[in-house]
Amino acid sequence: LFRQNKMRNTDSNSDDIEDVSLFDADDDVSRRSKKSKIRHPVASFFHLFFRVSAIVVYLLCELLTSSFIACMVTIILLLSCDFWAVKNVTGRLMVGLRWWNQVDDDGRSHWVFEARKVSAQGSKTSSEAESRIFWLGLITCPMIWVIFAFSALFSFKVKWLAVVVMGVVLQGANLYGYIRCKVGSRKNLTSMATSYLGKQFLRQTVAKEDQTAS
């Protein structure tokens, strides 16, 4: 089962939350999935392959070829493949999240954010290692494209602005969508950070008490 949050682009800005059943029911596994084991190596590879390849091509394109068109087309294709793979495949497999936009019969746009529910036994389909890989690649690469955008702007490389802006937009859209999936429509980043810090403090306190007792 997945938790689904719908955000409707209407004047009331109301959010609808409902439980939906998506994908196969046999996705639920035992607690062993929480171990630091990569359960989806192919998805983990392609989660980083397209976006890292686009960055490498951008950095080395002037050394590889003198054709700006060839470099631009290659980078945009890699960015497009990355956007589709991360949005539709790797997010679902690696962290149990997915988002998309749909238009209903009335022409209204709906942003849909889904997160896989944890079962009563606390089982997951993604491991801690996959989660680290997913969020590291998802956050780091858009930041690199932002740096490229400022670099192209200040160095007056106007012809590259369209390419780097495309990188910022496509990878930034995935980042925004998955943050909304993770945080939820009724939570903000501040409350999530506070909860995280509280958990870390509690763990350290318990660990110190265990050491003292031993």
Automatic annotation (TrEMBL):
<comment type="similarity">
    <text>Belongs to the TVP23 family.</text>
</comment>
<keyword id="KW-0812">Transmembrane</keyword>
<keyword id="KW-0472">Membrane</keyword>
<dbReference type="InterPro" id="IPR008564">
    <property type="entry name" value="TVP23-like"/>
</dbReference>
<dbReference type="Pfam" id="PF05832">
    <property type="entry name" value="DUF846"/>
</dbReference>
<dbReference type="GO" id="GO:0000139">
    <property type="term" value="C:Golgi membrane"/>
</dbReference>
<feature type="transmembrane region" description="Helical">
    <location>
        <begin position="160"/>
        <end position="179"/>
    </location>
</feature>
<feature type="transmembrane region" description="Helical">
    <location>
        <begin position="41"/>
        <end position="60"/>
    </location>
</feature>
<feature type="transmembrane region" description="Helical">
    <location>
        <begin position="133"/>
        <end position="154"/>
    </location>
</feature>
<keyword id="KW-1133">Transmembrane helix</keyword>
<dbReference type="GO" id="GO:0016192">
    <property type="term" value="P:vesicle-mediated transport"/>
</dbReference>
<dbReference type="GO" id="GO:0009306">
    <property type="term" value="P:protein secretion"/>
</dbReference>
<protein>
    <recommendedName>
        <fullName>Golgi apparatus membrane protein TVP23 homolog</fullName>
    </recommendedName>
</protein>
<feature type="transmembrane region" description="Helical">
    <location>
        <begin position="66"/>
        <end position="86"/>
    </location>
</feature>
